Amino acid sequence: MPTTPTAPTSPAAAQPTGVPLTPRQAERRLRILRTATSLAGRGGYEAVQMREVADGAQVALGTLYRYFPSKVHLLVAVMQEQLQQLLDQVRRYPPAGDDPALRVAETLTRAFHALQRDPLLAEAMVRALSFADRSVSAEVDRVAALTAQIILDAIGQAGPPSEQQRAAVRVIEHTWHSALVSWLSGRASIAEVRADLHTAARLLALP
Q1: Each residue of 75-93: pLDDT tens digit?
Q2: What is the SS3 assignment for 94?
């Protein structure tokens, strides 16, 4: 998973009202995300302090809070950008192979290997998701939607997914998130994570 946000390309690049950002606002938002990503990568969740983010992004603290009402909102947005970049990569370089379940498992395993290279950032994003309350529901829904789309793209789905596929995707999403938490807490190895993802992905082959 990439660790430096690029120019926002997703629906997440909008104001809380849903109005698309102007180019200047999008650039400001990107600076904020880059600063938060850098701080989290160096020190994890606790290292992301809103005052330091504002200073690093060269924006007023009040401006930062207009974009992101809390640190949780900010770090969930960082995760959105990370997942968006992973989705872009999957679309540029589709996984090979004839087995859709294997393509899904390998795509998500590669994401884990990327997170393994930046565990403090991964810890910060997962903690933010864990702390998210109803005020962050729209952002959390976007994370879930991006994860589901990554899975569907890895499948190579030509048309709308069936209800069975939707159910399988939800289980794979839950497995991916749970495996990430277990890995970060030291309760699961990458090998165990990979095995769990392969097991969950096999649900795609059920009649």
Answers
A1: 999 999 999 999 999 899 8
A2: coil
Q: Identify residue 56 by its one-letter amino acid code.
A: G
Query: Is residue 14 classed as helix, strand or coil in its secondary structure?
Result: strand
Residues 55, 60, 63, CA angle at the centre, nearest 5°?
125
Amino acid (one-letter) located at 26: A
Residues pairing with 14 in the sheet: 20
What whole-number distance in Å separates Cα of residue 135 and Cα of residue 140? Answer: 10
Most confident of 95-99, 126-130, 163-167: 126-130
CA distance 132 to 35: 21
- Among 181, 73, 78, CA closest to 123: 181
Structure tokens at 190: 């990458």
Beta partners for residue 20, in sequence order: 14
Residue located via tokens 């997170």: 115
Residues 120, 139: Cα–Cα separation, whole Å: 21
User: With 0-12 CB in 10 A as exposed, 13-18 as middle and 19+ as buried, what is 144?
Assistant: middle
Rounded Cα distance between 198 and 109, Å, is 9
For the segment 99-142, what is each residue's pLDDT rounded down to a tens digit?
988 999 989 888 888 888 899 999 999 999 999 999 999 999 99
CA separation, residue 66 to residues 14, 91, 122, 191 (Å): 12, 32, 25, 42
